[in-house]
Amino acid sequence: MRAVLVVNPQATSTTASGRDVLAAALASVLKLDVVETRHFGHASEAARDAVRDGADLVIAHGGDGTVNEVVNGMFEVAEPGDPSMPTLGVVPGGSANVFARALGVPKDPVDATHHLMRALADRSTRQVGLGKADERWFTFNAGIGWDAEVVAEMERQRSRGREATPALYARIALACYVRMARGEPKLSLQIGDDHPSELLHSVFVSNTDPWTYLGSTPVRMSPETSFDNGLGVFALKRMTAYPVLRHVAEMLRGRGKPHGRNSIQAADVPQLRVTCTEPLRLQVDGDCLGERSAIEFSSVPNALRVAV
How far apart are CA 131 and CA 149, in angstroms? Predict the structure, then answer.
């Protein structure tokens, strides 16, 4: 089996020695090429080239951003269901690793490598559905509003050398909440052919559950959503303190989907559209993609084969 291992050396828990150990283990059962990324977009380039070169397997070793780049690179040259599309393997190397954990892949890179090798030996794979935000594929979540502002600020802090810890994330989320609570809602949501909603503060779109992790704690925003059905949607009408705190507590307790008159919720959604009264930030799989005035989200069933 021909395989390409795409490694992000800047990922939180990726080290040179760990990469060498993992590569040696995988090379014992695969015809393996290793690509170490050097810049943003390099993982997409490596995955695109792997598909063109006829690789059977593309392995992403890094955080969720690396996985997202690899997936988007694969779909640059192949469509869902295309027999030339390689299988995806994931060895976590980031801080949250939401996509891998949702698939049941161990968080530890060594354990994840053994898990992948067993899956390859057993030819164990599954088809997963993916989401699209305009033309950008996403594996687990996307959003406009509160979460996108948090992601943008986290990226700024990491560029200054700050470690992406749960404590830093919580502080940034609180600061962004306070700032947004003082402003007017600027988003409108249209699910399928329904009429557009009233103006909203934030729209969260899920492709699986949990939405993300706060350290070891899963944040469950759309528990009915999985890789086997359509998108989950959760939108906040107002940013007043009590209902927002209640929603956050319900998400962290994992006792079912958040509820209340302050939110709009839907599950198994094939398509939705968000429009903004002014350009707002969009985040996809934890990466900020800049500002948009309108975004089309869609669910693509059985889009990708993953070794699990």
Answer: 20
